[in-house]
Amino acid sequence: MDKHFVSGRKNDVLIIEDSMATAILLTDFLKKLGYENIEKCNNGKSGIQMFSELETAGKRPIVLLDFHLPDMNANEVMASIFNIRPDAKIILETADSKSDEQIKDALRGGAYLYIEKPIRFENLKNVFETLEQERRILEEKPSDDLERISSHLKSSSRMSFARLSEYSGTENMLLEKYLLQLESEKMIMKISDIKEVSCNQCNSLKILPNFFCPACKSTNFIQGKLIEHFKCGNVSIEDSYKENKCPKCHKEIKILGVDYKSIDNYYVCKDCGDKFPDPSQDYVCVKCSNRFPLEKAKWVTSPGYKIVNL
């Protein structure tokens, strides 16, 4: 049995959240669910340090992680936490709307779940109940190799042999045997090879994309619509035009195409003020915390599999 599990005792919880109001609401709600040991940190650096201290103390905290923090982004925090404990349970939370691909990237990078703010507490309750059920199962009966492989296959619509090998920790010869067995039972089928980005330092496939301002490299940027006022030349986000008045010259904008133009889907850096159509991107390795651009990545190609009836 894992030394971190004590029968009947709930996990510790670590909240990494820069909004004190949100952190207090989460703490109060979790205490009602019976979680007594809750730590709060308002930035990524202190959150990583606290996670390390809890792990050293023999605890296994569930992490509630805000996607945007003042000093680090969630991908960097996740990479550091997974470096301390690879199977940490991290629940990401954000007020920003994210594309399906961004959510998938977060989950592929190891996040247990992704939830949007304002947080629906009933959903959060269900998540924590599921985590408790998983813990009880682990206490009662460790999963064997085949069950563990099946579980990883179920987590995605398709998965490569290389990723399955790394995630399950199964030797390649045994993994091939189990996959052949599942194929023969018509539970999975082999598909075309999958080519994936891997870390150029440790070769891990547990990679998260990292987005940042092209000018100052900050991850503290927002997405929005830009308004250009023809009369004075001001260009700033739509929200800065209070009551349809230009924040620079304070003249009212009235007619689109005559007084002003709208530039959709732009990004504005909150640190340096730079405006850009697309953020720059590199990658962070969850396993070793290495950060690298796409052109320096390693590529791994291996057979792909998808579920038929698993």
Summarize the structure.
The chain has 310 residues and is of the alpha/beta class.
Task: Describe this structure as you would to a colleague.
The protein is an alpha/beta fold and 310 residues long. It has 3 domains: 13-140, Response regulator (Rossmann fold), CATH 3.40.50.2300; 145-197 and 293-307, Arc Repressor Mutant, subunit A, CATH 1.10.10; 214-276, Herpes Virus-1 (2-Layer Sandwich), CATH 3.30.40. It contains 8 helices and 15 strands. It has a 5-stranded parallel beta sheet, with helices on both faces. A 4-stranded antiparallel beta sheet has the order 10-9-11-12, with no helix packed on it. Helix 2 (44-56) packs parallel to helix 3. The model is unreliable at 1-7 (pLDDT under 50).
Rounded to the nearest angstrom, the radius of gyration is 23 Å
Query: What's the number of domains?
Result: 3
Determine and state the CATH class of the largest domain: Alpha Beta
Number of helices: 8
Strand order of the largest sheet: 2-1-3-4-5
Compute the average pLDDT.
85
CATH architecture of the largest domain: 3-Layer(aba) Sandwich
By CATH, the superfamily of the largest domain comes out as Response regulator
Write the element-wise H/E pattern from the N-terminal end onward: EHEHEHEHEHHEHHEEEEEEEEE
Main sheet characteristics: 5 strands, parallel
SS class: alpha/beta
What's the layout of helices and strands?
Blueprint: E1 13-16, H1 20-32, E2 38-41, H2 44-56, E3 62-66, H3 74-84, E4 90-94, H4 100-108, E5 113-116, H5 121-140, H6 145-154, E6 158-160, H7 161-168, H8 172-184, E7 188-198, E8 207-212, E9 221-229, E10 235-237, E11 260-269, E12 275-276, E13 280-285, E14 291-292, E15 298-307
Parallel strand pairs: 1-2, 1-3, 3-4, 4-5
Antiparallel strand pairs: 6-15, 7-15, 8-13, 9-10, 9-11, 11-12, 13-14
